[in-house]
Design goal:
single chain, 345 residues, mainly beta, OB fold (Dihydrolipoamide Acetyltransferase, E2P), 2 domains, 5-stranded mixed beta sheet, 6 helices, 20 strands, 13% helix, 40% strand
């Protein structure tokens, strides 16, 4: 089979895919610093471990209106022949293998211009719907031609402007801006090559006013809860079913497993969709704060005085901001008998 893996992502409500081989890394959106006299397709730069990373306005490149930034937006770092750029997307979905015979170049008239210049390589139909496939080589080349600085030079604060003065983050409150600044500081820090291979990626979520870390190897995506269909004769931790682009996913409330009050799940609350083998579930959370990387040496066991029922699913604790974050063993939690539903009525 002549399959190629694609990273699927959303721009607003449209689905796109890009070859996974071109994706170097991804993380939640940090501050983007604007640069004077750059084209409209370039939003600015970020300081990624001491080097400039140009950030392209993919909406503008695709001739779409760009909605305001959201705290849950992600940045995908694309690399082509040692050159890198960042693109901002609404949500990263998954990695899927697509066979060549599933891709067609017969796009609608409004996409002909993009198809002719090679930016759009074709379209395909997956469970999520119609997906437009993009050419990472042309995205990187276009960004580097448009930018008027050397991306391999050191980050020089004297050559850029304050991003907050350019309206990109004006709609966020002070607490949200602080989160962006913390993300920026984390990305700025240099990491030794021998240490970076051992870093553990974690999604940081909020439950009951506490921080929890979910390992990204099990996290499939983040989503907003819209409509919940109740399931009859289920225990309280089974909230109901949600429709995730045609796939029915059971939504669970893990508060009781981590010694927190069982607060009701509300519409427009956030959920983390997790996958383990054939098991798929949505975990209701209060907030989705960040994707962060920690070294195993930062993880410690919980103090004896704090031991509780959640220890069965606790991988350890690690510092996050000015507090400690509990790292949850999702694999153990998802296979726990506590979450098994007795279907006998």
């Amino acid at each position: 089979m002549n399959d190629q893996s694609y990273l699927m992502f959303n721009l607003n409500h449209s689905h796109y895919g890009i070859p996974a081989t071109a994706v170097q890394e991804l993380f939640f959106l940090p501050e983007v610093t604007a640069i004077a006299e750059t084209p409209s397709t370039i939003l600015g730069v970020i300081n990624l471990r001491g080097k400039f990373l140009p950030v392209m306005d993919l909406y503008h490149r695709l001739k779409q209106a760009r909605p305001p930034f959201q705290l849950t937006d992600s940045m995908i770092v694309l690399e082509w022949q040692t050159q890198r750029i960042g693109i901002i997307v609404s949500q990263v979905d998954s990695v899927q293998a697509i066979a060549a015979d599933q891709i067609t170049a017969n796009v609608c008239d409004r996409s002909k211009e993009s198809l002719q210049d090679g930016l759009v390589t074709g379209i395909t139909n997956v469970e999520e719907g119609i997906v437009t496939l993009l050419n990472p080589e042309l995205l990187v080349q276009h960004a580097l031609i448009e930018t008027a600085f050397n991306p391999n030079s050191d980050f020089n604060n004297g050559s850029v402007n304050d991003a907050l003065n350019h309206g990109l983050y004006d709609h966020f409150d002070s607490q949200e801006r602080q989160i962006f600044q913390e993300r920026t500081e984390t990305l700025r820090c240099l990491i030794a090559d021998e240490d970076s291979a051992w870093l553990l990626p974690l999604a940081v979520v909020g439950l009951g006013g506490e921080y929890f870390g979910f390992g990204l190897e099990t996290v499939h995506e983040f989503t907003e809860i819209h409509k919940i269909t109740p399931i009859p004769c289920c225990p309280p931790h089974i909230v109901g079913n949600i429709n995730l682009r045609g796939e029915i996913v059971t939504l669970i409330n893990i508060n009781h497993l981590v010694d927190l009050p069982m607060n009701p799940v509300r519409a427009h609350q956030q959920a983390v969709v997790v996958r383990l083998d054939q098991r798929v579930a949505g975990i209701a959370v209060d907030d989705i704060f960040d994707v962060t990387y920690i070294h195993p040496s930062q993880i410690t066991t919980a103090p004896i005085a704090l031991h509780s029922a959640k220890d069965d699913y606790l991988q350890g604790v690690a510092p996050y901001r000015d507090r400690m974050m509990s790292i949850i063993n999702l694999s153990k939690l998802l296979t726990s008998e506590v979450l098994v539903v007795n279907e006998e009525v």
